[in-house]
């Protein structure tokens, strides 16, 4: 074999990735996902106050195995939060937002999707929010940002179709997401009303805001020029 070919062959071999390292990386990724899914199941079974020993016990492994794949509890918590958002919360919200519905029923569908997702998985949600600090806060904040930006796109498009001012779409979207999230967090922590009542109240508030925006064509200046009585007229008093 010519010398040039030999050198090229040696270089090609040197550039090939180590198959064992690649397989280990793939195995580690798959195993981490399995352990995260096991952690989610453990939280559902034992509640949001669960610790590493209980997680390992519920999965059926030793805590040492957990630390083989996660650097510490914070790493496992972050991965668990990301998995919950990516596989459960975000897809349900995206599906609702992408529905071919009129504005009122779209508002209702999105709020219902969020509240019902939290209501059907309360321990996981409360675990996520209880650990929502430091680097873990980034996971929740990123999911809120993605949902708000998608909602802003939908709001903007629907306002522009009606030749209305869409300049406030982004702050309106973030305000809606923040209000729904905070109200639902309050509710899941005490459940002083039914989920259906919460949905009805949130739809009423959110739709009232959207309807007010549309009534002013999305224009702050037009909105400020309009009268703002609490109601159109006071009810007649009984004699």
CATH topology of the largest domain, what is it called?
A: Tetracycline Repressor, domain 2
The number of strands is 0
Order of secondary-structure elements: HHHHHHHHHHH
Strand content: under 5%
pLDDT averaged over residues: 87
> Pairing-aware structural class of the strands and helices?
mainly alpha
Question: What's the Cα radius of gyration?
Answer: 25 Å
Task: Please summarize the sheet with the most strands.
Answer: none
Report the CATH C-level class of the largest domain.
Answer: Mainly Alpha
Distance between the termini: 112 Å
Oligomer: single chain
- Helix % is over 70%
Number of individual domains: 2
What does the overall shape look like?
elongated
Descriptive report:
- By secondary structure, this protein is mainly α.
- The chain has two domains: 23-70, Arc Repressor Mutant, subunit A (Orthogonal Bundle), CATH 1.10.10; 73-218, Orthogonal Bundle (Tetracycline Repressor, domain 2).
- It has eleven helices and no strands.
- The N and C termini lie far apart (112 Å).
- Residues 1-5 have low confidence and may be disordered.
């Amino acid at each position: 074999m010519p010398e040039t070919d030999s050198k090229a062959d040696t270089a090609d071999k040197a550039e090939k990735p180590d198959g064992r390292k690649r397989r280990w990386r793939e195995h580690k990724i798959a195993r981490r996902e399995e352990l995260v899914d096991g952690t989610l199941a453990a939280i559902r079974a034992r509640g949001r106050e669960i610790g590493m020993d209980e997680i390992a016990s519920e999965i059926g492994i030793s805590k040492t195995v957990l630390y083989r794949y996660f650097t510490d509890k914070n790493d496992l918590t972050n991965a668990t939060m990301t998995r919950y958002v990516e596989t459960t919360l975000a897809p349900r919200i995206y599906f609702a937002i992408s529905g071919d519905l009129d504005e009122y029923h779209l508002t209702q569908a999105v709020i219902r999707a969020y509240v019902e997702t939290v209501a059907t998985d309360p321990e996981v949600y409360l675990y996520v929010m209880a650990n929502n600090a430091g680097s873990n806060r980034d996971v929740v904040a990123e999911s809120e940002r993605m949902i708000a930006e998608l909602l802003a796109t939908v709001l903007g498009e629907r306002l522009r179709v009606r030749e209305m001012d869409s300049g406030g779409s982004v702050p309106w979207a973030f305000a809606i997401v923040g209000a729904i999230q905070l109200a639902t967090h309050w509710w899941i922590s005490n459940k002083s009303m039914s989920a259906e009542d919460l949905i009805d109240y949130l739809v009423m508030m959110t739709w009232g805001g959207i309807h007010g925006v549309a009534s002013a064509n999305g224009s702050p200046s037009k909105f400020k020029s309009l009268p703002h009585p609490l109601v159109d007229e006071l009810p007649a008093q009984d004699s």
